[in-house]
């Protein structure tokens, strides 16, 4: 399964998602630090879920990182826009 699909599945499983957009931005970082040549090293996530909106910014990030689990160790960069 592609990492993008894993990210989407885990976030939908963990939260009552109202909006989710996961973009693979790896092509923009080809040849840079962290590019492992897999084409799955850099992602941008925009997520909206009611339970996250009441949390502080730090708590939202921790909740998302927790839901992603080991994916955090398999990607170089993960940009988060959470609300």
Could you provide a short overview of the structure?
The protein is of the alpha+beta class. 39% of the residues lie in helices and 23% in strands. It is globular.
- Helix/strand-derived class? alpha+beta
* Biggest sheet strand line-up: 1-2-3
Distinct helical segment count: 4
Helix content: 25-40%
For this structure, what is the CATH homologous superfamily? BolA-like
Uncertain parts: none
Beta strand count: 3
Q: How many strands, what sense, and barrel or not for the largest sheet?
A: 3 strands, mixed
Radius of gyration: 13 Å
- Tell me the β content: 15-25%
CATH topology: GMP Synthetase, Chain A, domain 3
- Please give the alpha-carbon distance between the first and last residues: 27 Å
Judging by the overall fold, what is the CATH architecture? 2-Layer Sandwich
What is the residue-averaged pLDDT? 89
Number of domains: 1
């Amino acid at each position: 399964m592609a990492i993008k699909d894993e990210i989407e599945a885990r976030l939908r499983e963990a939260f009552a998602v109202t909006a989710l957009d996961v973009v693979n931005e790896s092509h923009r970082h080809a040849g840079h630090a962290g590019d492992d040549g897999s084409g799955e090293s850099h992602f941008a996530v925009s997520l909206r879920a009611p339970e996250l909106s009441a949390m502080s910014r730090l708590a939202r990030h921790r909740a998302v990182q927790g839901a992603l689990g080991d994916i955090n160790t398999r990607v170089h960069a993960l940009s988060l826009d959470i609300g």
